[in-house]
Amino acid sequence: MLNSINRSLSRRILFYFLIVSLTMIISIFFTFEEAGKSAFKKVEKQKAEIMINTILPAISMNLYLGFTNKIQKLVDNIVDNQSNILGMTVVGNSKVVASKIEKNNSKEDYFIMTKPIYKPNSKEIIGRLHVIYSYEHYNKLIKKYDKLLYMFLAGISILLILFSIYLEQLLSPLKKIVMKLKGYSAKKPLNFELKDRVDEIGAISKALEEMQDRIISYNKKQEDINKHLEEMVKEKTKQLKNRFYVDSLTGLPNRFRLQDDLKELKNATVVVLNIDDFKEINDLFGHRTGDKILKTFAKKLGSLFTTNYPKLYRLSGDEFVLLFNKKMSDNDISQFLNLLNRKIDEMIFLYGDKEMNLRITMGVFSGSENHLEKADIALKKAKKNKKSYEIYKSDDKHVEEQYKKNIEWIKRLKQAIEQDRVVPYFQPIVNVNTLKPKGYESLVRILDEEGEPIMPGEFLEIAKKSRLYFHLTKIMLKKSCEYFKESDCSFSINLSIEDILNPDITEYLEKIIKKYDVSKKIILEVVESEGIDNYELVSKFLFKMKKLGCQIAIDDFGSGYSNFEHILKLPIDYIKIDGSLVKNIELDRDSEIIVTAIVDLAKKKGIKTVSEYVSSKEIFERVKSLGVDYVQGFYFDKPRRYVDKECSEN
Fold first, then answer.
1. Fewer CB near the terminus (10 Å): N or C of the chain?
2. What topology does CATH give the domain 406-631?
3. For 88-111, how does the pLDDT look when each residue is reduced to its tens digit (9 = 90+)?
4. Which fold would CATH assign to domain 255-392?
5. How far apart are the C-alpha atoms of 243 and 261, rounded to whole Å?
6. What is the average pLDDT value for the chain, to the nearest integer?
7. Burial 5-29 (b: 16+ CB within 10 A, else e)
8. What's the CATH class of domain 2-142?
């Protein structure tokens, strides 16, 4: 039934209309039924109440005077003459005074009313009156009432049925329209027969036909537009594909085209050409001139080759690639590259009235896989060896492995930074006289997935070659300052020359020192072994930190050229003697002489000295005898993640 209802809107309307109507009819019937019966019963009880109240004074007076015969006559008269009263009993002094009940009474529907009999002009009760009252009159009224109610409900039902039939006829034209619309197609126009009617159905049919005409017209236009768009999309796709595979500056095929072409070749020879020191051209003459030179170079280089191979590509920036579709011997490659070098040396590029030449370095790989990677390894080798070209050899595989290792380490470093696994370890710096720590040096460690520390020798150099190094510096600064903010110990942080020359790092250092209020505790260790090429900037930074309250130390002193002029000019508080001079000092006389000279100079300048790599009692005794102030090394303790924050010297 529900399925048939759901198929048609008109049937759904009729169904819900009938349900609501029947619910209302039933509700009205029962409401009126109950209300009517209740009202009629109430009326009967009120009539009985009035009749009893009428005879009650006479009964009260006779009962008070003791005229029981009169009371009986009165009771008999009322029961005989009042058809609604089936019986009456008067009780006085706990005994029946008068009573009459109809003997042939077969009526079952009645009620009994009881009233107290008061002493005349008093509230004293002298008896009770019991009256049996019939519902006969009430039942007659109810039958008449029910008949009228049924007639009323029947009339409403007939009206509802007639309205339902009318509604079905009213919606019938809409059904026809719906059936037509179900089979609508823009290619098969519909004919709406009802459009000539003057009512709403006709208006709907006419509106639908007009809408159909507009849709047909729109579809025709849309087909034309779609056809035009398809042609435009094909053209744009072709243009985008060309842009994707073509370098926008030189017009040469790009890296993506090269990668696709390599996939189609079983064996190939790849030559990567890099213009030497092209950055200097951009810096001196500007990027616009640099771009112009690149375009000219690409054009001149392409003009050298008239056959399909080699193909010329622009890889990126100042790098180009030549691709041969076969594996070439080393001899053939060398002959080609020597000739190519001569041709490029003969090329002249103009900047205004000035002439310039370009120098190139090339890396070559000939084989079947990883062409670009291996050619790039050969290119880096050529630059390192300062040669015009290098051909990738099988013994260069260790370089490739090292590159892969470096890439893996960069990934591990990123994860360690993201997962907060970069932590400082602290090694004590011990007073040679008291043998108590004066402070600690903060040393960077990375915790692996199991929480074991990884030494900086594994990752620090790789970090310096990437942009991750400065992240490590910031983490070490923050965590070390935070660790010692409530301590009386001094602590030292290593800063490379790259750190000092990086404004972002120096600003962060100053900010973090002020935040944790550790300017009187922190010692900034500058690594002397790296050299100080930009002396003015380094000196300015150190004097600024000294003014802030920080102490300055030169780390690894003695491992480089040890420019004593720096010691005389810079605001140094400590010299840390490099471990290479200390670890064999009890056996190496030259090391002892150098350490002695450093200590003597430091004492004359009022600078404290720290000996690193003190790993045994013998080394400790020797450096102590030379006058070193502090020592650091495994003889006293290895670096630890958590240390005592109380120091005797401070």
1. N
2. TIM Barrel (3.20.20)
3. 888 887 788 888 887 555 555 777
4. Alpha-Beta Plaits (3.30.70)
5. 16
6. 82
7. eeebebbebbbeeeeebeeebeeeb
8. alpha beta
